[in-house]
Write a structure and sequence with these properties.
9% of the residues lie in helices and 31% in strands. The chain has 105 residues and is mainly beta.
Length: 105
Amino acid sequence: MLTTRDNSATWPIVWIFIKSYFKAKQHVLFSIITTEANSLVGKIHDSIPVILRKDEEKQWLDTHMKDDEIMQYLNKYTSENMNVYDISTLVNSPHNDMSDVLLPA
């Protein structure tokens, strides 16, 4: 499980994604934008979803941003600002729809 750190306090991770809605078929599709994994996540996987800091959320939703402004948010999130811990394998089943699956193992 990954959590972020801000002065030793954890806060929810905000991932960047693109959403499309197709009216004719009544489908909503989205893609999670990824970047190169940092040193912590790189031990598990070679990519990581782009993560926003709390103070970046409002700016990311600005529909008037230019391409070069958007690109500044696509850098990898530093491992110094993250925690990682093992969680139960209960998370592997959709039948275990409970928050307890995210508790440390």
